[in-house]
Amino acid sequence: MSRTWGGDGGGGASAVTAGARPDEARRHNRAALLRRLHVAGPCTRATLASELGLNRSTIKAVVDGLAEAGVVTEAVPAQRNGAGRPSLMVLPEPEAAVVLAIDVRVEQVAMAMVGIGGQVLGRHSWNLHHRTRVPGEVITHIAESAQLLADELAVSARGAAVSVPGVVRRDDGFVHEAPNLGWRDVALGARLGTVLRIPVQVANDAELGALAEHVRGEAHGVDDLVYISADRGVGGGVIAAGRPLRGTRGYVGEIGHLVVRPGGRACYCGNRGCWETEVGEAALCRALGLPEDTPRGVVVAELRSLADAPFPGPATAPLDEFAEWLATGLVTVVNVTAPDLVVLGDLFTALPPAVVDHVRTQVHERSLVSRAVGGTRIETSPLGRDAKLVGAAELAFEPVLGAV
Fold first, then answer.
1. Could you report the per-residue pLDDT of 167-203, keeping only the tens digit for each?
2. Where is the composition biased (Gly residues) (predicted)?
3. 208, 217 in Cβ contact below 8 A?
4. Cα–Cα distance, 267 to 273 (Å, whole number)
5. Which member of 213, 226, 327, 345 has the lowest number of beta carbons within 10 Å of its beta carbon?
């Protein structure tokens, strides 16, 4: 069941500042080295010294300490280049620190036990229906499933993080509103922390999608990006200057509620003509001539069937207006945030490549900012449906790696 999520990550951290106490320096260097291995994978001691700006004796002390604690091992590389004795590779031990990642979607909950290096040790998911979508039911099922996974894998999670499609207060994981789940004022972080008995963080799903792309996806090495996902609604996550843009108390990213069509369809937020009413799942179903409650698999299959069709063209003609509204919203997003890269996630990843190409061209032609920077990149996510789960794991690891 084990695998590692894609992407080679980034990851170094600078050496500790001069004047720090020896114990502080050791903790900093230990966390920086472990973070580098977690994100970017195995490498030699020489590479660690170069990337972290530490001397060989310091690297030796840190690696030896982590090896003695069972957090890393050293091994001869599987592939050898050149003559002579190969340098040993420093590898993280996945089960030395494990976190629980949870992605609460409108129709499903997915969860995974993830070890250092992003290795998925085990996973579980279940469908949600009207009754099982109630917060108490979801919390109970998460607690039961987490225990089953822990018992099956013989591991214990040191922390957890949850992705939720709603407005989340990052301080304490309080979900003010998750309309598509029917949730309002749910103390999710506190309630899950009580039943799981480990620290729990909760974040907006699109914010975690952006984090996942930044660490392990299309946006690795990109400091300014926007991640936009389409599910029942449309959400966005922003990384600015290499850091998540969170706004007051973490309330940022409701990109789907930009008004693009004044007087358009009514939106649950109280406005009319919000972007998600034109490019969300229901809008995509309408564009394809399908009922708005069509199962997700059918919608995706219909889009995949158009993968090789030109745009514009007879086969893709139903998507003409949809593509126009997608481009219109993206022009505003690019003009406001000036990202190097926009990553399209969830349902947008199933759009025919020719449609994405057309939208990309439209944004380049209609966005002042895109023209100024030489053309903002617009790509679909390689992480697919796992993006929010990957992001939840990375959020959970942030405090854990410094305490291993």
1. 999 889 999 999 889 999 999 999 999 999 999 999 9
2. 1-13
3. no
4. 7
5. 327
